[in-house]
Design goal:
The chain is α/β, with parallel strands linked by helices. It is about 35% helix and about 20% strand. It contains ten helices and eight strands. The chain has an eight-stranded mixed beta sheet with strand order 3-2-1-4-5-8-6-7. Helix 6 links the parallel strand 2 and strand 3. The longest helix is centred in the first third of the chain and has 21 residues. The chain starts with a helix and ends in a 7-residue tail after the last strand. The structure holds S-adenosylmethionine and magnesium ion.
């Protein structure tokens, strides 16, 4: 399925190789999300190999554990504002259906459930979903999470809809970022919310997330990230815009090596998170 997209991509001039592929796809006006897959088997194999370490706070997923309070602060503030909920409430997301695409071991799904959301967690790697299920079952609050081994595009084709669709640190691992965003959008109700986080395609990101985190600090297994798969905030905004999602807010995450904490920042040159709203297009009415 890659050769046809490669051929049609040739006429587009975006600087991002994967986005070029998607532009080509978008031009054939196909509304079906099942025509392409978001799966990149090489990427999935990397996550499968370390699936039993999801909940080891000092293991390969240490950066995600460390980022969790920071990204949850962003999610709490943007989504409480979006859904007119009280951010100081213990369960602000009560009554809302959230889906966490590429949930891994459930590092995000669990706190969202604790904040009252009805959560569906989805991952393409079966082992991840099994680990997530076992971990969530240890607590009655998180045992309510629905975990599925599937993809955003399959669920979109099934017509599933959610108030908010979240996908953190996943888009840089999928086969087709723009098609992936279309699937995320298809899963979102009109006027619903979308939250994505990833790594910017800058020299600073290369230095810190690949050279620093993989080769010097050895936080992440070597080969975890490909610089060329990183997505700039401009590209993210553009592909979401074309998928009927308007980006409303973007924040950076900056690591403080002294405290070991991540802070929300205006600096989006390395790690960043974006919140957008699904347009209510004429076709949805
Ligand atoms: C870096 S982890 C992020 C996990 C989680 N979102 C978090 O931030 O804690 C990326 C996850 O995305 C999953 N993944 C990669 N490609 C996927 C796809 N096309 N569809 C669904 N999940 C995918 C991987 O199996 C892995 O669990
Ligand atoms: Mg990543």
């Amino acid at each position: 399925s890659t050769s046809d997209t490669d051929a049609s991509a040739a006429s587009f001039s975006s600087s991002h190789p994967k986005i070029q592929t998607l532009e080509g796809k978008a031009s054939n006006k196909s509304r079906s999300t099942s025509s392409t897959t978001s799966l990149n088997e090489d990427e999935l194999a990397k996550f499968s190999a370390i699936a039993d370490t999801w909940w080891h706070s000092e293991g390969p997923f240490k950066p995600l554990h460390q980022m969790n309070p920071t990204r949850l602060a962003f999610i709490r503030s943007t989504l409480c504002r979006h859904f007119s909920k009280d951010p100081s409430s213990a369960k602000p997301f009560e009554g809302l259906k959230f889906i966490d695409i590429g949930c891994g071991g459930g590092l995000l799904s669990e706190p969202l459930a604790r904040m009252g959301a009805t959560v569906t967690g989805v991952d393409a790697v079966d082992k991840n979903v099994k680990i997530a299920r076992l971990h969530a079952d240890m607590d009655p609050v998180t045992s309510t999470i629905e975990y599925l081994c599937t993809t955003a595009e399959k669920l979109a084709d099934e017509g599933r809809k959610f108030d908010a669709v979240l996908s953190l640190e996943v888009i840089e691992h999928v086969a087709n970022p723009a098609e992936f965003c279309k699937s995320l959008s298809a899963l979102t109700i009109p006027n619903g919310a979308t939250v994505l986080s990833t790594i910017n395609r800058t020299m600073r990101a290369y230095a810190s997330t690949i050279v620093g985190a993989e080769y010097i600090l050895r936080w992440l297994p070597k080969g975890t990230h490909q610089w060329s798969s990183f997505v700039t905030p401009e590209e993210m905004s553009m592909i979401l815009q074309r998928a009927s999602v308007d980006v409303k807010e973007i924040a950076g995450f900056v690591y403080n090596p002294i405290t070991g904490r991540w802070l929300l920042s205006d600096d989006i040159s390395v790690n960043y998170i974006a919140y957008g709203t699904k347009r209510k297009d004429l076709g949805d009415i």
